[in-house]
Design goal:
By secondary structure, the chain is α+β, with helices and mostly antiparallel strands. It folds into 2 domains: about 1-95, 2-Layer Sandwich (Phosphorylase Kinase, domain 1); about 125-315, Alpha-Beta Complex (Aminoglycoside 3'-phosphotransferase, Chain: A, domain 2). The protein is about 55% helix and about 10% strand. The chain is built from 12 helices and 8 strands.
């Protein structure tokens, strides 16, 4: 792999290291990351590069830039896989700024982008995406119910899906009501977000901004996914850290009532459950299936706790929901 990197880019890494979910290497003060292209269309890659270039122009020095090959191409084959190579100067990261403040600034800069984004654009599309995902999983669940052959995971899925179906329907309805009853404000413009932001993301990449992880969406997406990860992974519950994170973010950019409702609808949508089920059934490797099986068991163990968190969410973050005309989901 090191030899092929040298052949394509004229760079010879002393050793390859793991950076989050990617392979990478260091040369002097710069970190290089190999980003697998997989089946990404050329148009998508073009949008990713366009957003990356823009954010660097805006002053986001921690954003990775794409390195062309010796022949001037951006995609090359290394060890049988198509990659793009990204480079970032680690010293460009803002060392003293908190994660929440850094994310708020990142979102602010992303909102300045004025060109049309088509393939990475997910703003206003949550409802349709959630409905489609629910419909597909419900059909699969029905096939498992009727199946004669069931393993332990199948039984867990069959037993728990109706509850998560109900929760998903609540999320879709809450989102639909928000879009019908409330008006987006200045805060609610589209910006550059992450596919799935989390507290771990910040730690894994040590403040590197990797454009392959980006989508064009409402900023509440990142906030909701950070909160979800903190609530599910923090053994002490994470409520204090969630409150502190949101306060630090709002010191830079206050949220609108529309944004709070979007954020809450996303927390209602049980993405963690969907990912565990879909991940398990899409894998053939027993070891990988075991990972998703354990993940599902952990999620189910925390079901009541997470439901109580959803019930008390606006109180936990000290938001005057009544004053802002934000309704609570009573059955929780």
């Amino acid at each position: 792999m090191k030899n092929e990197i040298y052949q394509h880019f004229g760079l010879y890494p002393q050793e390859l290291v793991t950076i989050g979910k990617y392979h990478g290497f260091w040369i002097r003060s710069k970190v290089y990351i190999l980003l697998p292209v997989n089946r990404l269309q050329e148009e998508v890659l073009g949008e990713i590069k366009k957003l990356s270039d823009f954010m660097i122009q805006q002053g986001e020095l921690a954003v990775a830039t794409f390195v062309p090959t010796i022949q001037g191409y951006y995609v090359s084959e290394i060890s049988g896989t198509q990659y793009m190579l990204a480079r970032c100067n680690r010293q460009g990261a803002r060392g003293k700024e908190s994660e929440a403040a850094s994310l708020a600034l990142f979102h602010y800069r992303g909102k300045q982008f004025s060109e049309t984004i088509e393939h990475l654009n997910q703003i206003g599309k949550w409802k349709g995406m959630w409905e489609k995902r629910l419909e597909q999983l419900e059909q699969f669940w029905q096939s498992k119910v009727l199946s004669q052959s069931k393993d332990e995971f199948d039984e867990l899925f069959i037993e728990t899906f109706p509850y998560y179906l109900g929760l998903t329907e609540n999320a879709i309805q809450y989102l639909a009501d928000t879009e019908l009853d409330d008006e987006p404000q200045n805060f609610d413009g589209a910006t550059i977000c992450h596919q799935k932001y989390s507290s771990k993301y910040w730690k894994y990449y040590q403040r590197l901004r990797i454009p392959f992880d980006w989508v064009y969406d409402h900023p509440s997406r990142d906030l909701a996914e950070w909160i979800r990860s903190e609530r599910l992974e923090n053994k002490d519950g994470g409520n204090d850290s969630i409150l502190a994170f949101l306060k630090e973010y709002e010191e830079k950019t206050p949220l609108s009532s529309f944004a709070w409702k979007l954020l809450y609808s996303r927390l209602l949508f049980p993405l963690h459950y969907f990912e565990a089920i879909e991940g398990y059934y899409s894998q053939q490797e027993p070891q990988q299936r075991k990972v998703y099986h354990t993940q599902l068991e952990n999620i189910l163990h925390l079901t009541e706790e997470y439901q109580n968190f959803l019930r008390d969410f606006y109180d936990i973050i000290q938001l005057p929901a009544g004053q802002l005309q934000i309704r609570k989901v009573e059955w929780l």
